[in-house]
Write a structure and sequence with these properties.
Blueprint: H1 3-12, E1 17-21, H2 22-36, E2 40-45, H3 53-56, E3 62-65, H4 68-77, E4 84-86, H5 93-103, E5 108-111, H6 114-127, E6 131-136, H7 147-155, E7 162-170, H8 178-199, E8 205-209, H9 224-235, E9 243-248, H10 250-253, E10 257-269, E11 272-277, E12 298-300, E13 308-314, E14 323-331, E15 338-342, H11 348-351, E16 363-368, E17 372-377, H12 383-386
Parallel strand pairs: 1-16, 2-3, 2-9, 3-4, 4-5, 5-6, 6-7, 7-8, 8-9, 11-13
Antiparallel strand pairs: 1-10, 10-11, 10-15, 12-15, 13-14, 16-17
Helix pairs in contact: 5-6, 8-9
């Protein structure tokens, strides 16, 4: 633990808050690239953590942007929009029109349905603006299109302003089966080869979301390195001839984040020690947690020699479901002690039910050894969102 980093933050800022360490973020990207090699592109799914996109701009090849709000964040951050992949299952004509008029084929657009394709085709023809498109292949849920529909689009009449760059595919997160990864890549490789054989269509780019796992809990086997190394080997076997872009969010960002909260109250109810913290489940989310029984990585900031007890850590919400972890051993836990939840760099800051009970949105800090602390978002009151009176 970098004690100096946390000591300074706890002295200067009121809990709860997030710290995203951009040195750790850069180290994770370098580790991924070292294993995959320079021929594989990296696409960052910014929904995992939009606060770090500027720090990633020079480290990744592209950004998956899934909503008008995320698109606006990229613009405000000054991101090179040539790195944007305008994705998402719901696209409105006005949003596409804005992107086309402002950026044209500088960015890549995804088509998740026939109507997406037709909407883009109509807009590009009316505006006389070209567009580059990825066709999303479904994995069997609401996202993407059946292979037969993709074939139909490719076999159709060429469009004057539309260029199909390739295929996009994602089937889920936290995968821990190398066989599943291998089978998906074999299927995609075959699909791309068939498009070439049957229609003379060369897939220039395959954007694939491998869904590599992050080990969040003490009880789990850490398969991060095993899955990454296996993925690298499977990619070497692809024969379709185009570029591969791996879309990652969790696997890039998770390790860089810490969520810092303080003990606000302690009590013993029916013989069980409870600790109430000033944060809660509206701000902290671990994928795969089950009834708070699994133990995430927590750094107790104060190490003491007192009695060790198994504490149930609860948040500040008025719901019995606001339990962060059960039966976690702490030594001589006291009111005011900080608890530092690690591996919170992906999704915690965006997925929590942040408006519940009108609690403040916590401070978001970026940290690096060179630039020290920067405020990415101040503490923000949410009550106005839940009741607005003009």
């Amino acid at each position: 633990m970098n004690e100096t980093k946390f000591e300074y933050a706890l002295h200067e800022y009121t809990t709860p808050f997030y710290i995203f360490d951009t040195d750790i973020l850069a180290m994770q990207v370098r580790k991924i690239r070292d294993v995959l090699g320079p021929e594989t592109e990296l696409c960052y799914a910014m929904k995992a953590n939009p606060f770090v996109i500027k720090e990633l701009e020079e480290l990744v090849d592209s950004f998956e942007v899934c909503s008008p709000g995320e698109f606006s964040i990229c613009e405000r951050a000054g991101i090179n929009m040539g790195k944007a992949v305008m994705s998402g299952v719901h696209k409105k004509p006005d949003d596409l029109k804005y992107a086309l008029e402002r950026y044209g084929d500088k960015i890549i657009y995804t088509a998740e349905s026939l109507s997406h394709w037709q909407m883009l085709a109509a807009l590009t023809e009316r505006l006389h603006i070209p567009a580059r498109v990825l066709l999303r292949l479904t994995s069997g849920n609401q996202f993407g299109m059946d292979g037969s529909l993709i074939r139909q689009i490719i076999a159709g009449d060429p469009h004057q302003f539309m260029t199909i760059e390739g295929i996009q595919y994602f089937s889920g997160t936290q995968k821990k089966s190398l066989t599943k990864l291998e089978n998906e890549l074999k299927m995609l490789d075959q699909f791309c080869r068939e498009l070439s054989q049957q229609y003379g269509f060369a897939v220039k780019k395959l954007e694939y979301g491998p869904g590599l796992p992050i080990c969040y809990f003490e009880e789990e086997k850490n398969m991060e390195a095993e899955m990454l190394n296996g993925l690298a080997e499977f990619l070497k076997n692809l024969t379709f001839g185009g570029r591969v872009a791996l879309e990652m969010g969790r696997f890039i960002a998770a390790h860089c984040g810490s969520y810092v909260t303080r003990v606000a109250d302690i009590k013993t109810n029916k013989g069980e020690p409870y600790c109430i913290v000033d944060g809660g489940i509206h701000q902290l989310n671990y994928y795969g947690q089950m009834l708070a029984m699994k133990k995430p990585p927590i750094l107790p900031f104060h190490q003491r020699n007192g009695e060790k007890k198994k504490w149930t850590v609860c948040g500040s919400l008025c719901t019995a479901g606001d339990v962060l972890v059960k039966q976690h051993p702490f030594q001589d836990l006291s009111v005011g002690d900080p608890l530092i939840f690690q591996k919170t760099g992906a999704y915690s800051v965006t997925e929590g039910m942040s408006l519940f009970l009108s609690r403040d949105l916590p401070l978001v800090l970026l940290y690096s050894e060179k630039e020290r602390f920067r405020i990415a978002r101040p503490r923000f009151q949410t009550d106005a969102f839940n009741y607005f009176q003009s």
